[in-house]
From TrEMBL:
Family label: Belongs to the AB hydrolase superfamily. Lipase family.
Binding site for Ca(2+): 197, 202
Lineage: superkingdom: Eukaryota
Residues of the PLAT domain: 341-464
Organism: Chelonoidis abingdonii (Abingdon island giant tortoise)
Entry protein name: Lipoprotein lipase
Amino acid sequence: MKLKWCDEIFFSLWFLQSLCLQEKVILFKLILDFEGIKSKFSLRTADEPDDDICYLVPGQEDTVARCNFNHTSKTFVVIHGWTVTGMYESWVPKLVDALYKREPDSNVVVVDWLSRAQQHYPVSAAYTKLVGKDVAIFIDWMEEQFNYPLDNLHLLGYSLGAHAAGIAGSLTKKKINRITGLDPAGPNFEYAEATTRLSPDDADFVDVLHTYTRGSPDRSIGIQKPVGHIDIYPNGGGFQPGCNLGEALRLIAEKGLADVDQLVKCSHERSIHLFIDSLLYEDKPSLAYRCNTKETFEKGLCLSCRKNRCNNLGYTVNKVRAKRNSKMYLKTRSQMPYKVFHYQVKVHFFGKVNVTKTNQPFLVSLYGTADESKNIALILPEISTNKTYSSLVYTEINIGDLLMVTLQWEKESIFSWSDWWTSYAFDIQRVRVKAGETQKKMVFCSRDGISHLTKGKEAVVFVKCAAKPNNTDTGQDLKERSAHEFSEE
Ligand SMILES: *[C@@H]1O[C@H](CO)[C@@H](O)[C@H](O)[C@H]1NC(C)=O
Ligand SMILES: *[C@@H]1O[C@H](CO)[C@@H](O)[C@H](O)[C@H]1NC(C)=O
Ligand SMILES: *[C@@H]1O[C@H](CO)[C@@H](O)[C@H](O)[C@H]1NC(C)=O
Ligand SMILES: *[C@@H]1O[C@H](CO)[C@@H](O)[C@H](O)[C@H]1NC(C)=O
């Protein structure tokens, strides 16, 4: 088990701050004290994505021309979240830059609410109402004064900024085209009414990435419940690959301690970098799949694209508005480009004697027309004689069309006496594979009719089944049981 003490400390700090300032009286006074502070709207440029050069000031029409606002282009409005330092975090220029790379003619506006965002967390959380109101006033002004169409408007809010975006969307006179919530903040919002947080009513289309939803709902940094039309939970939404302690230490060794606060928020901020990935790597879009639970997704049972069950993560999402909000899942790499290829692998374990084993380690290798991905580790929670098991296997390598699969049953790392004198084996006829990204279903057969997969022995090979003149696929087949393990969602 990996000790994620960095996260734990971060949780604790955040939480303690919340506890210190629960008293509504204090909260109310502070809000009054800061009444005068208004959000600022900085129109950034592609040349200087990290500088506030020109502000669009609501009520001052000349600022719009002075800042070279393009009235016929799209506008992105970026809203930051809570900040410890009172400064923009390093992702801001990265996101601005990526937006301009993808949409060179667009206007990228960064909302500066830093002074309100550096208060104690519950205070800043309460300020999202005022920030949302500021943004709504700005948008209504652009719409009324310049006839700027809100169809061209896309709000992107991170953490507390996601809720500010939602409030803005609920207050504008006309509906905003799209709001993207990047790991919307959880504390103080998980159980809040829809009107005070991001919700599907806030724009024509609301898409949300959930990347740091660990622990019980009241302690989770990212909101756990779905709050958009589409809610994507990369890697289950709890914790992101590459954000563990070992990785953090490696980064500190490489880049020094300066970025430590970035490291602690690694999973939270991953939502932004996944969106940036979707802007920059147009040719490597990550697909997410609708699924009822992450456990079902882990079994590979949700890799379907029928009836909008799959969608692109990020910028090019298809604007599907399901009646009930739907959770979607995918796996990613630990670095950009994040895309991986998902496969469902289904195997029926034949045997003469009844055997049940739990938590068994396997290695799967996939060989394709373009490349191969060897020894993908896989743990099956349970295997039993004459049952079918389905599992999710994923690889960052684009292997092309799958040609061959090998399967190896490893010994557990812990020495076991029973393993020492018993040789466990199952007979396998075929391996069924479904590729999520291509939606292709394939069946791979043992070259000998039946292969013996023995624990601790070499891998067994499955190749594309030979085409037979007669369809013997069902007739001569041994009966494959436990149909429930077999069916897709
Ligand atoms: C404004 O954007 C449009 C595309 O939306 C582009 O054709 C035009 O050149 C831009 N105008 C200026 C002044 O950059
Ligand atoms: C498993 O099924 C096969 C064929 O359907 C049968 O021959 C075998 O006896 C079964 N094994 C057990 C342990 O019931
Ligand atoms: C294996 O177990 C199943 C039920 O779990 C039983 O029907 C079958 O007879 C058993 N087979 C053997 C060979 O013990
Ligand atoms: C299938 O095999 C039978 C004999 O086993 C033969 O009579 C029949 O024509 C075959 N059908 C096809 C479609 O090849």
